[in-house]
């Protein structure tokens, strides 16, 4: 599977664009991959995998974007993903997406991690996730079959909502474990629709809110 081991900064196209299904790209240690007017890394193919040990960047778009089923993003301890949105996943009826973050993810003006329309989304965070508007943003107007799961022992923070969830009729699970911090200047966790199952084993500096009271 391909490894990016040299500096890339494109203007109008992604730094890395997947060419087919089932590919696994690795960004090597200390390597910069980016784009000025497009995503740092982009895939519309199923089964895409990204292992980032370097720096993935977009000046105006998404740091990483995956728009197909069965995608996995692993951001290693030295890895950073930075863009208007850090990571964007989803599309109509997308299924089985996983983000594992041990490094840093930053959505400098919008969202750190954004997943929309996904059934069965898992986020494991031991590093840092920041989004100016929302640290983590999870929505699905279509009502997927399986709700999201977030396991946090790192830091999720935002000037708006630390975590924002809108999942009609589904149980969303947040395991905030020892050492985990979820912070939002507005609210740490905001459940707009759906059932929440918070396990508050770490710091929870502001109360979560659920409009349906569950």
Secondary structural class = mainly beta
Rounded to the nearest angstrom, the radius of gyration is 16 Å
Number of domains: 1
Largest sheet: 14 strands, parallel
Mean pLDDT: 87
How would you describe the shape? globular
Q: Distance N terminus to C terminus? A: 45 Å
Per DSSP E runs of 2 or more residues, the count of β-strands stands at: 22
Strand content: over 45%
The sequence of SSEs as H and E is EEEEEEEEEEEEEEEEEEEEEE
Helical residues, percent? under 10%
Number of helices: 0
Poorly predicted parts? 200-205, 207-214
What is the element layout, followed by pairings?
Blueprint (H helix, E strand, L loop, with lengths): L2 E2 L3 E3 L5 E2 L6 E4 L4 E4 L5 E3 L5 E4 L2 E4 L3 E5 L4 E5 L4 E4 L1 E17 L2 E4 L3 E15 L2 E4 L2 E6 L9 E4 L2 E4 L2 E16 L4 E4 L2 E14 L8 E2 L4
Parallel strand pairs: 1-4, 2-5, 3-6, 4-7, 5-8, 6-9, 7-10, 8-11, 9-12, 10-12, 11-13, 12-14, 13-15, 14-16, 14-17, 15-18, 16-19, 17-19, 18-20, 19-21, 21-22
């Amino acid at each position: 599977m391909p490894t990016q081991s040299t500096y890339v900064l494109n203007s109008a196209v992604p730094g890395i664009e997947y060419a087919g299904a089932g590919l696994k790209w690795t960004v090597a240690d200390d390597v910069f991959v980016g784009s000025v007017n497009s995503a740092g890394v982009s895939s519309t193919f199923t089964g895409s995998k990204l292992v980032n040990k370097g720096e993935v960047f977009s000046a105006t778009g998404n740091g990483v974007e995956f728009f197909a089923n069965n995608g996995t993003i692993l951001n290693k301890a030295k890895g950073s993903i930075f863009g208007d949105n850090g990571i964007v996943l989803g599309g109509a009826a997308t299924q089985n997406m996983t983000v594992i973050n041990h490094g840093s993810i930053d959505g400098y003006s919008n969202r750190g991690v954004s997943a929309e329309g996904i059934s069965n989304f898992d986020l494991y965070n031991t590093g840092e996730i920041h989004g100016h508007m929302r640290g983590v943003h999870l929505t699905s107007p279509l009502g997927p079959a399986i709700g999201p799961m977030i396991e946090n022992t790192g830091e999720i923070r935002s000037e708006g909502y630390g975590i924002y969830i809108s999942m009609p009729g589904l149980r969303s699970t947040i395991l905030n474990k020892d050492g985990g911090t979820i912070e939002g200047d507005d609210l740490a966790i905001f459940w707009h629709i759906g059932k929440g199952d918070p396990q508050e084993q770490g710091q929870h500096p502001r109360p979560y809110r659920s409009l349906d009271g569950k």
